[in-house]
Specification:
Layout: H1 15-28, E1 34-35, H2 47-58, H3 71-85, E2 94-97, H4 100-111, E3 117-122, H5 126-134, E4 138-143, H6 154-160, E5 165-170, H7 183-194, E6 200-204, H8 220-223, E7 231-236, E8 249-252, H9 255-268, H10 274-285, H11 289-310, E9 325-326, H12 347-358, E10 360-361, E11 363-364, E12 374-377, H13 382-397
C-alpha cells in the first residue's frame, strides 16, 4: 500500500459511525443491541418521493445529471427557501450535492487556504472539524456550556474571531445537543458578525423542521439581511423527509461562491443521481403536513426519554428545542467501576462499558468536543427507547 497522505493524519473515523458499526457487528452475532447512536429517522421516505423516482427511471431519466442540479429541483429549492426561510435566491445561486456533508466539504475546499480559521461552536457535529482540517484550515472550537443551554454566546464568538478567521459555522438545531437559537439569540450573533465584515457564515440548517414546543426556527440571513451576501445556507432532505439513503443536500449563497463550490463538485463527484433529484423535487414541492406530524412524534419521544433519564440518580439532561438528540451529563458516574470491572474514567469508557455490558449504543460527548456527556438519538420507536432507557438505568444503578 502506498504511504497515506499527510492530510489524513489528523482526520479520524467518525465516532458515531464507529459505534453504529460496532452495534451491527454485535447484532450479526445474534445479540439484541439497542442502537441510540445513529442520527437517522426511522420513518419511511414519503411515498410520493419514491413514486417520482420510479417515474423518472421509467421515463428514461437515467443519463448524466446536471452538475448544479436539475432545473426542476433548483426551482423547488428556490421555492422552499422563500416559503420556509424568507430568502430570495436566483437559481444561479443554488447548488445541489450528494448530501449536506458534501456541500460543506466542497465549500471548505473551495475557500480555505492553509492556516485559515473556522470558528465552530462546540459541542458540534463530529465531521465539521475534520472537514476543516482536511481542507487545510484550522478549526477553532468555541465552548458552549450546559449552563447556557449549549448555545453560542455573542461575547465568546467575538473573542474567537481573529484576522485569520474565514468562516463561522452555525448549526441550529444542533447535533449533538438539540439546542436551537431564538430570533433574539440569533440577532445577538448577527450583531457580532456585522462587526467582522471579512468573515463568512455557513449555516447548517439540516434539522430546521425538527422543532418542538412551538419554538420558531430562524436562519441568520433572514434574521439579518445585511449578512445575506456572505452567508451560505445549507440544507437537505435527509432528516426532515427521512431520505438519508438518497444522498441529497443543497445550498443557497452568493453567485461567485456557488460557482467556486460547483467547480469543486465537478472534480470530486459530479451531479447527484437523477432519481434522487426527482424524489427531492417531489418532496419539496409536495404536501408539507408530514413535517409537523413527524415533529410531533419526535417531541413525544423526546419527552418520554427525558422523563426516564430524570429518574436515574446523578444524571442530568438539558431539554432541547429541536433535532432528535439528547446530551445528558454523566459527570456523576466518572470514577466508578462497572459490573463488568471497567473503570469509568471518562465518557468514552462509559459508552464502551454500556455497549459491552448492556448492549446499548450511544456516542461519547468527547467525540463532539465536550465531556463528560453522552449523545442519545431518539429517532426510533418508543418501545426501543423504553428498553434502551431500562438498560441505561440498570447500568448506572450497578456502577460502584
Amino acid at each position: 500500500m502506498p504511504t497515506t497522505a499527510d492530510r489524513l493524519k489528523n482526520v479520524s473515523v467518525s465516532a458515531s459511525v464507529a459505534m453504529t458499526q460496532k452495534a451491527r457487528e454485535l447484532t450479526a452475532q445474534g445479540i439484541k443491541v439497542i442502537s441510540l447512536s445513529s442520527g437517522e429517522p426511522d420513518f419511511p421516505t414519503p411515498a410520493h418521493a419514491i413514486e417520482a423516482a420510479y417515474a423518472a427511471a421509467l421515463g428514461g431519466d437515467t443519463k448524466y445529471p446536471a452538475i448544479e442540479g436539475t432545473p426542476a429541483l433548483k426551482l423547488a429549492i428556490q421555492s422552499k427557501f422563500k416559503r420556509d426561510n424568507n430568502l430570495d435566491y436566483d437559481v444561479s445561486q443554488i447548488l445541489v450535492a450528494g448530501g449536506g456533508k458534501q456541500v460543506i466539504f466542497n465549500a471548505m475546499l473551495a475557500t480555505l487556504n492553509p492556516g485559515d480559521e473556522v470558528v465552530i461552536p462546540t459541542p458540534a457535529w463530529i465531521s465539521y472539524a475534520d472537514i476543516v482540517k482536511f481542507a487545510g484550515g484550522v478549526p477553532v472550537a468555541v465552548p458552549c456550556n450546559q449552563a447556557n443551554s449549549f448555545k453560542l454566546q455573542a461575547e465568546d464568538l467575538n473573542a474567537a474571531i481573529t484576522p485569520k478567521t474565514k468562516w463561522l459555522l452555525l448549526n441550529y438545531p444542533s447535533n449533538p445537543t438539540g439546542s436551537a437559537c431564538s430570533r433574539q439569540e440569533m440577532t445577538a450573533i448577527a450583531e457580532v458578525m456585522l462587526q467582522h465584515p471579512d468573515v463568512w457564515i455557513m449555516t447548517d440548517d439540516m434539522y430546521e423542521h425538527l422543532i418542538y414546543d412551538g419554538f420558531e426556527f430562524c436562519t441568520i440571513a433572514d434574521v439579518e439581511p445585511r449578512l445575506y451576501e456572505r452567508t451560505l445556507t445549507v440544507n437537505g432532505v435527509s432528516k426532515a423527509y427521512a431520505m438519508t439513503g438518497w444522498r441529497m443536500g443543497y445550498c443557497g449563497g452568493p453567485k461567485d461562491l456557488i460557482k467556486a463550490v460547483s467547480n469543486v463538485n465537478t472534480q470530486n463527484s459530479g451531479g447527484v443521481c437523477t432519481l434522487t433529484q426527482a424524489a427531492a423535487t417531489a418532496v419539496l414541492n409536495g404536501p408539507q403536513a408530514l413535517l409537523a406530524e413527524r415533529a410531533g412524534l419526535y417531541q413525544q419521544r423526546r419527552d418520554f426519554v427525558l422523563e426516564r433519564l430524570a429518574k436515574i440518580e446523578g444524571m442530568t439532561c438539558h431539554k432541547p428545542e429541536g433535532a432528535f438528540y439528547l446530551f445528558p451529563n454523566i459527570a456523576h458516574f466518572i470514577g466508578r467501576i462497572s459490573r463488568g470491572g471497567r473503570k469509568i474514567g471518562n465518557d468514552t469508557d462509559f459508552c464502551m462499558a454500556l455497549m459491552e455490558e448492556q448492549h446499548v449504543a450511544t456516542v461519547q460527548g468527547a467525540a463532539y468536543g465536550l465531556s463528560p456527556f453522552v449523545r442519545l438519538s431518539y429517532a426510533t420507536s418508543l418501545e426501543t427507547l423504553g428498553e434502551g432507557c431500562d438498560r441505561i438505568a440498570e447500568f448506572c444503578a450497578t456502577l460502584r
